[in-house]
Amino acid sequence: MAISVFLIPSVRAEDKGVLWQFEMLGQGYGFEVHRATRSRTIVLSKATQRAIGASDFVISIVTKALTSHARAELEAALELSVPTLVFVESGVRAALPREVETIRFSRGMDVKEVAELIAQHIDRVSRPRTRRPRNATKSSARQAPSVSRETKVALGLFAAVGLALLSLAALSSEEEPDDARR
User: Fold this and answer.
1) How confident is the model over 25-72, as pLDDT tens digits?
2) In this predicted structure, what is the pLDDT of residue 31?
3) What's the Cα-to-Cα distance from 154 to each of 2, 55, 115, 117, rounded to whole Å?
4) How do residues 97-108 score in pLDDT, each as one tens digit?
5) Closest to 161 in 3D by CA, of 118, 104, 102, 125
6) I need a labelling partner for 165 at 20 to 30 A (CA). Which of 1, 12, 14, 136 fits?
7) Are 55 and 4 in contact (CB under 8 A)?
8) What is the pTM of this model?
9) 76-96 pLDDT, tens per residue?
10) Considering only CA atoms, which of 4, 61, 60 is closest in space to residue 31?
């Protein structure tokens, strides 16, 4: 069965192409990658809420201040007890929901360092936990599912490659020094 990932972007314009590459890469490796169709309103559609709730993981990549759409989608993931990986670029003030744990990254980080951070984070967020949705009774609290080791490894590799794509995009967009052009 394919691992279902819901992608929540809050990225700069120049990073949007990397998101598309990230989605295609995930689909190529057998992940089901979903993303909300956003409208002018920040109220999440029922389809978006269902897609978030049906996902095995939510991955959010933040390279600019968190948009109101991204915040609403993250809050829905928290309410629905979906394990969430949030990658925030160093120097970005994201104003995330209080309960969200983040992995800070910079585009120049060593891949091994990023992989270790991701592994630790996946282990923390994928532990079974009970979370009660807003306005819910104790009896309606939902137990988050446990996650297999294979799923954690696959998700970690997928996320690491996504961050590597951001680093490569940053390198390719840097201008060459004047001496190198001659």
Assistant:
1) 888 878 898 988 787 877 888 999 999 999 988 989 899 998 899 999
2) 87
3) 11, 15, 12, 15
4) 888 888 888 877
5) 118
6) 1
7) yes
8) 0.76
9) 999 998 988 888 988 998 888
10) 4
Spatial contact of 60 and 92, defined as CB atoms under 8 Å apart: no
Give 38-86 as a DSSP string: --SS-SPPHHHHHHHHH-SEEEEEESSSPPHHHHHHHHHHHHTT--EEE
Which of 44, 79, 13, 57 lies closest to 147 in space, CA to CA? 57
Three-state secondary-structure class, residue 89: strand
CB atoms within 10 A of CB 2: 12
- The neighbour count for residue 35, using CB atoms within 10 Å, is 16
What CA–CA distance (Å, rounded) separates 15 from 131? 33
Inter-residue contact 84 to 77 (CB < 8 Å): yes
Residue with tokens 């389809």: 47
Residues pairing with 19 in the sheet:
none
Residue 140 has pLDDT above 50, yes or no: no
From edge to edge, which strands make up the β-sheet containing 84-89? 32-34, 4-10, 57-62, 84-89, 102-105
> Residue 66 to residues 95, 119, 173, 182: CA-CA distances in angstroms?
6, 24, 23, 41
